[in-house]
Amino acid sequence: MVHPKAKESTNKKGLTPRQVFTRNHENLMEKGEKRTKDTATSCTVVAAFVVTIIFAAAFTIPGRDDNKNGLPISKKTEPVDFFMICDGLSLCFSTVSVSMFLGILTSRYSEDDFLEKLPRQMIIGLISLFCAITTMLAVFLIVILIELHTRLCTVYAFGCLAFAIATLFIVVIFRLLVGMIRSTYGRGIFDRN
């Protein structure tokens, strides 16, 4: 942390403050790269799993099949329409998530990347992964509602389970996400009073 006028000044060895920081904290960048890669790898696996499930679900419209033409028979079209909308949204969100995490995994991991690019990709990836999981759970609940519409207790039980899963995911990633947003877009250490 130096005065803005001293950013380009050099010490006795001819090094700028940034060069001194880089030399003294080489292991910090290595640890950051390893942690970022580990997080991105884990999230890529989850997002790819969601893409696979949702892609398969898109071709399996809920309801019984008509023996004549193979199309699903559904007395209510609104749940089927909502199913298709949520399925499409989940596919889009999970694809964005996979793309962001693959972008992180293939990054150069330069010093400048750690300041804004990598955190921005991680934030977008985590938010889109959350949205993908939430809409996937909505797809699951719609199928349960269509198939078991006469047994509302079962539908409510699955609804509570889906809500618990979404809440658990929020609890797990919330601190990471808030910390990344604050450090990337917040006031940071340089704008404090």
TrEMBL record:
Keyword flag DNA-binding: no
Keyword Cell membrane: no
One GO cellular component term: membrane
InterPro entries reported for this sequence: PGG_dom
Pfam family of the protein (one): PGG
Membrane-spanning residues: 39-62, 82-105, 126-149, 155-178
Domain PGG per the UniProt entry, residue ranges: 34-144
Domain of life: Eukaryota
Keyword entries, A-Z: Membrane, Transmembrane, Transmembrane helix
Matching PANTHER family: ANKYRIN REPEAT PROTEIN (PTHR24177:SF329), CASKIN (PTHR24177)
Name of the protein in its database record: PGG domain-containing protein
Source organism: Carya illinoinensis
Taxonomic placement: Eukaryota, Viridiplantae, Streptophyta, Embryophyta, Tracheophyta
